[in-house]
Design brief:
The protein is α/β, with parallel strands linked by helices. The protein is built from nine helices and eight strands. Helix 2 (about 30-45) crosses helix 4, helix 4 packs parallel to helix 8 and helix 7 (about 145-155) crosses helix 8. The protein has a five-stranded parallel β-sheet with strand order 2-6-1-7-8. Strands 3-4-5 form a three-stranded antiparallel β-sheet. The chain has helices at about 15-25, 30-45, 55-60, 90-100, 105-115, 130-135, 145-155, 165-185, 205-220, and strands at about 1-5, 25-30, 65-70, 75-80, 80-85, 120-125, 140-145, 195-200. It is globular. It has one domain (about 1-220): P-loop containing nucleotide triphosphate hydrolases (Rossmann fold, 3-Layer(aba) Sandwich), CATH 3.40.50.300. Helix content is about 50%, strand content about 20%. The structure holds cytidine-5'-diphosphate. The site of cytidine-5'-diphosphate has 17 residues, from helix 1, helix 2, helix 4 and helix 8.
Length: about 220
């Protein structure tokens, strides 16, 4: 079974997908982590930003980006380096949506995601999973929350638990800018699949949102 969880930046897709996968004994695939790993590799390698647009799928193979299954999780590697925190820096945050809109990048990742999900049950989160990557997924969730709540959660993740108004507004601005790029791009834009179930987590606790999705998964299974 494939459970697809899509939604805007900071809606909690990855943490939700990880916990739903853990509870069901499925593999969790965070598709955004691959776009982040590629962005990190391009930056580390010093590839000039004005050359990114012209990259071809075969150019991307040389970064040797791979997801290695470790129980129910994937370790993302760039060459021999396992990357995690490196993927969530402000530099990567600011550029990842520019990388993700390049058609060659999306083609390159599509095959990898299909391979990873070919032999196992998965919960996979992203922007286009229910619309483009796995349009036949058994359950599709579109996770949403108010921008201010998303900004608070994102800041809390970075250790800022009581942000002032200015910090909050800045974070809302960053999330909105990324959502705009993701929604307006030509290839596989962020949008709710017609048959996805909308789950608004603005007023839900983490446990409540996990339960809501597990219930939908049980009903489908
Ligand atoms: O965790 P957060 O919502 O901040 O983002 P993410 O899921 O790590 O994804 C980072 C970026 O990768 C997004 O803003 C998109 O530009 C891109 N992405 C995408 O285009 N398609 C996906 N399936 C997943 C991510």
């Amino acid at each position: 079974m494939i459970i697809a969880i899509d939604g805007p930046a900071g809606s909690g897709k990855s943490s939700t997908a990880r916990e739903v996968a853990r509870r069901l004994g499925f593999l969790h695939i965070d598709s955004g982590a691959f776009y982040r790993a590629l962005t990190y590799a391009l930056l580390s390698d010093g590839v000039p930003e004005d050359a990114w647009e012209g990259l071809r799928p075969e150019d991307l193979d040389r970064f040797r980006i791979a997801g290695e299954r470790d129980g129910g999780r994937l370790t993302i590697r760039v060459g021999s380096e396992a990357v995690a925190d490196e993927l969530r820096t402000p530099d990567v945050n600011a550029r990842v949506s520019h990388v993700a809109r390049i058609p060659a990048v999306r083609t390159w990742l599509l095959g990898r995601l299909h391979d990873l999900a070919s032999a196992t049950d998965v919960v996979i989160d992203g922007r286009d999973i229910g619309t483009a990557v796995f349009p036949d997924a058994g359950l599709k969730i579109f996770l949403e929350a108010d921008p201010e709540v998303r900004a608070r959660r994102r800041l809390a993740e970075q250790g800022v638990s009581d942000p002032d108004d200015e910090a909050l507004l800045e974070e809302v601005g960053r999330l909105r800018a990324r959502d705009r790029l993701d929604s307006e791009r030509e290839v596989a834009p962020l949008r709710k699949a017609g048959d996805a179930v909308r789950v608004d987590t603005t007023a839900l606790t983490f446990d409540e949102q996990i339960e809501a999705i597990l219930e939908l998964a049980r009903a489908r299974a």
